[in-house]
């Protein structure tokens, strides 16, 4: 039995705890095999994706509205079908403007976004082809298939699951809250010297341990950005992340995209804002039963680990492949431009049971205090002349 790092959060059941113990043992072995110290991104990768045991590799509930249904967090497509219905409009425009027909979604969660997009594109009269889903989580595939068969039965035959990416893809790519679920390296500048934060096994539990690290391109970039963004303000300690996995992923997707567009929706900031004085303790967050906290060692495999997206890096990674930056906007602006209020207007206000939750969800998706400002949409394209209506106002590409 391991010493548990439980904080004051709800305690999981015996089966879940056994799974977490098995993952703890696996990671402990990896630490030993690595000579006693594992970089944090390797820890995060195992905690999220170790087959059968990691948070996304195992059977945790993950998405849902409330802690008492066993879920940990809620995403926009889970909040309301209006998100998918609205997103379908720019997706349809991108298909039309690029003359392509196929769709590909990364990290499709429960399948609600896929089902909603299929139904909405059909309702818009789009003659679309295949909807391919790529997910690292085998367990979620089953849930996705069930959801799509239930919510979009006549269109489910268009959906396929890919085990590997094609070398080329023409169509529209979508990824909601996928970039934030990618492993990050933790790096810390202490009195001017950079260290990498890793994980060790100490006194029967995981602990952080910082090691001096030589400067690489990513760290140098951060070093400069911190100094520029903070007016030479010096920090005793500045902890942040580098996002190599998300950058590599963006490059791969934009290279694969030979014609069409790729939309990524996620929380985060441009580089100057990301490496700001107020964020000197990193954006790494843990979600367990709708409580956010900062202990990544709590119940490994049973809680979500996530970090904010550094959108300037993502924009550079995409455009380095030759793709165009189609736009960068707050989620609120993007959804407003895409017509979310028209979509809401199509509902009957007298149907209180349907209308009230929809109106509440729209408020959450748009409100500056909720998801409207923190969440951004970044999009890349090839072969689309001009821009999309959804980026017609409030495009913040210049801030990247
Ligand atoms: C926070 S969940 C978001 C799920 C869903 N898009 C939603 O909004 O509800 C992150 C998802 O991204 C997936 N994911 C992470 N990295 C991935 C990658 N490289 N390729 C495909 N899926 C990935 C995870 O398996 C997980 O299903």
UniProtKB/TrEMBL annotation:
Signal peptide stretch: none
GO MF, any single term: protein-arginine omega-N symmetric methyltransferase activity
SUPFAM superfamilies named among the record's database cross-references: S-adenosyl-L-methionine-dependent methyltransferases
A Pfam family hit: Methyltransf_28
Family annotation (InterPro entries): NDUFAF7, NDUFAF7_sf, SAM-dependent_MTases_sf
Highest taxon of source: Bacteria
Regions that span the bilayer: none
Keyword set, alphabetical order: Methyltransferase, Transferase
GO biological process: methylation
PANTHER family (alphabetical): PROTEIN ARGININE METHYLTRANSFERASE NDUFAF7, MITOCHONDRIAL
Protein name listed in UniProt: SAM-dependent methyltransferase, MidA
Organism for this UniProt entry: Candidatus Burkholderia verschuerenii
């Amino acid at each position: 039995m391991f010493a548990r790092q439980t904080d004051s959060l709800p305690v999981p059941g015996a089966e879940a705890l056994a799974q977490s113990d098995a993952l703890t043992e696996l990671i402990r072995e990896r630490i030993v095999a690595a000579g006693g110290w594992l970089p944090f991104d390797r820890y995060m990768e195992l905690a999220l994706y170790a087959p059968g045991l990691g948070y996304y590799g195992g059977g945790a509930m993950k998405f849902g509205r409330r802690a008492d249904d066993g879920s940990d967090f809620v995403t926009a497509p889970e909040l309301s079908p209006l998100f998918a219905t609205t997103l379908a409009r720019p997706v349809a425009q991108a298909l039309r403007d690029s003359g392509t027909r196929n769709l590909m979604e990364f990290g499709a969660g429960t399948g609600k976004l896929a089902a909603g997009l299929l139904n909405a594109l059909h309702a818009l009269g789009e003659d679309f082809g295949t909807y391919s889903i790529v997910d690292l989580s085998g367990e979620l595939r089953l849930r996705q298939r069930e959801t799509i068969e239930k919510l979009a039965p006549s269109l489910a035959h268009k959906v396929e699951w890919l085990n590997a990416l094609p070398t080329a893809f023409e169509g529209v790519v979508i990824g909601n809250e996928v970039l934030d679920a990618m492993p990050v390296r933790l790096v810390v500048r202490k009195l001017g010297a950079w260290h990498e934060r890793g994980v060790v096994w100490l006194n029967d539990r995981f602990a952080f341990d910082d090691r001096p690290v030589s400067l690489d391109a990513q760290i140098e970039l951060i070093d400069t950005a911190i100094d520029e963004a903070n007016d030479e303000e010096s920090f005793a300690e500045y902890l942040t992340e580098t996002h190599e996995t998300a950058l590599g992923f963006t490059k791969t997707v934009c290279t694969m995209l030979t014609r069409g567009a790729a939309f990524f929706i996620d929380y985060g900031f441009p580089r100057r804002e990301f490496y700001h004085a107020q964020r000197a303790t990193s954006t790494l967050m843990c979600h367990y039963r709708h409580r956010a906290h900062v202990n990544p060692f709590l119940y490994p495999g049973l809680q979500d680990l996530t970090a904010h997206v550094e959108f300037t890096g993502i924009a550079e990674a995409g455009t380095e492949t030759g793709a165009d930056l189609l736009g960068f906007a707050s989620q609120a602006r993007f959804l407003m431009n895409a017509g979310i209020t028209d979509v809401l207007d199509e509902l009957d206000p007298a149907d209180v049971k349907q209308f009230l939750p929809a109106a509440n969800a729209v408020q959450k998706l748009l409100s500056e205090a909720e998801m409207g400002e923190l969440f951004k949409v970044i999009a890349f394209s090839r072969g689309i002349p001009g821009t999309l209506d959804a980026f017609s106002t409030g495009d913040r590409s210049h801030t990247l």
